[in-house]
Amino acid sequence: MVLAGRLRVRRVMPLSLPLLAACALPLLAASPARADFRVCNATQNLVGVGIGYRAKAGWITEGWWHIEGSTCKTLIEGPLSSRFYYLYAEDAERGGRWDGPISMCVAEKEFKIAGVTDCVARGFQRAGFQEYDTGEQSSWMVQLTDQPATDGAPAAPGN
């Protein structure tokens, strides 16, 4: 009787191992969810990107992230702490822009600027940033495309 029970287990085990492996494989292959602010460049050209946000100490603008064509970069790592973020991008090869109506400060080279007023008087330039309402989500992604929006919205929608 005991022998028959052992045989039954041996016959079932080889059949259940592939099933178990098939169920567990997606769990092992799945990467953990990341919380961050990412920008993807869906064009074929190099793009320079600046971001603006409200921090505890006040307004901050940062840049330039250089994003090659058909790639993505994380601008802010970790869960987002603000509801609104502001983005400005320039096509380094063709000179096009992804901009908006919100004026903030930028610089020619890498920058992290506190404050958004008196840009020129402080030695910076002004640029128009597009606002993104993340709805207080912990993660957000913006995709820059060659296609203009048809409803007057920016061509770089968040998700």
Structural features, described:
With about 160 residues, this protein is α+β, with helices and mostly antiparallel strands. It has two domains: about 1-30; about 35-145, no CATH class. Helices cover about 20% and strands about 40% of the residues. It has one helix and ten strands. Strands 2, 3, 5, 6, 7, 8 and 9 form a seven-stranded antiparallel beta sheet that branches. Strands 4-1-10 form a three-stranded mixed beta sheet, with no helix packed on it. Mean pLDDT is about 80; it is low at about 1-30 and about 150-159.
Biggest sheet architecture? 7 strands, antiparallel
| Total discrete domains | 2
Helix count, per DSSP? Answer: 1
Shape: globular
Total strand segments: 10
Radius of gyration: 24 Å
Reading the helices and strands in chain order gives HEEEEEEEEEE
Summarize the amount of helix as a percent range. 10-25%
Low-confidence blocks of residues: 1-32, 148-159
Look at the structure and give the mean pLDDT: 79
The computed structural class is alpha+beta
Distance between the termini: 62 Å
Beta fraction: 35-45%
